[in-house]
Design goal:
This protein is α/β, with parallel strands linked by helices and 225 residues long. The chain has one domain: Rossmann fold. The chain has a 7-stranded mixed sheet with strand order 2-3-4-1-5-6-7, with helices on both faces. The N and C termini lie far apart (37 Å).
Length: 225
């Protein structure tokens, strides 16, 4: 596993039991099909796994922890046990991103203002970080993982922004839609389970991101609705 990524996720795992909740943002540099859903699911799986290892908390993480609408997020959050992980994956509505943000932002903002006591990990996935309202982009989120293509449309690389760096990115980058305007961010590679696989804990097939076929069917059903 990428060492820097693991180090930061492990801090969240350690601290959440001290009456915290954490919102992790994952964007795709304003582009689609860059692998943000894959990293989101892998981050979710890793957080849930480590909660079991470190705190002996036996929560589940499967396709039912992935939601695509604001109302699904709110309903799911109110029914899951503490320290659960929810992936709010807007990938199924990528082509309707603007409509999505307008129609659900207020409900989600209201939810985020009130959900701290639920002590959850919320992984929020969207194509463009700059589409988020300031309250979520700067105040409520703990970090941003921005995933992007490298040369030849290769997936698997991104940048990590902590609180201060993502704040600067939102303020300065949004003006020119420039994800490169903040220096000294750290690159990461999407190798979230390498550390676990070396210990023979996680089967290699898990790296393909839960059950991809079922996830695609769930997305298609959501779009049709």
């Amino acid at each position: 596993m990428d060492g820097f990524m693991k180090e930061n996720l492990d801090i969240l795992v350690k601290q959440i039991v001290k009456d915290f909740d954490f919102v992790i943002l994952i964007s795709g540099s304003g582009t689609v099909r860059v692998g943000k859903s894959v990293i989101g699911q892998q981050v979710g799986y890793y957080l849930n796994y480590m909660m079991g290892q470190k705190h002996k908390i036996d929560n589940t993480f499967d396709l039912s922890n992935i939601v695509f609408r604001g109302e699904e997020l709110i309903a799911k959050a109110k029914n899951l046990p503490k320290y659960s992980v929810i992936v709010f994956d807007e990938a199924g509505a990528d082509l309707l991103g603007r409509k999505f943000m307008v129609s659900t932002t207020q409900a989600v903002l209201d939810f985020f203002r009130e959900c701290g006591q639920l002590n959850l990990f919320l992984v929020v996935i969207l194509p463009d970080y700059f589409d988020l309202p300031k309250g979520i982009a700067i105040t409520r989120s703990v970090c941003l993982l921005d995933v992007y293509f490298t040369q030849g449309f290769e997936r698997g690389t991104g940048k990590f922004f902590g609180r201060e760096k993502k704040k600067n990115l939102y303020i300065w980058g949004k003006k020119l839609m420039n994800y490169q305007c903040v220096n000294q961010t750290l690159d990461f590679h999407l190798l979230i389970f390498i550390h676990l696989m070396k210990q023979n804990i996680v089967n290699l097939n898990i790296v393909h991101s839960l059950d991809v076929k079922n996830k695609i069917m769930k997305q298609c059903f959501h779009v049709e609705q």
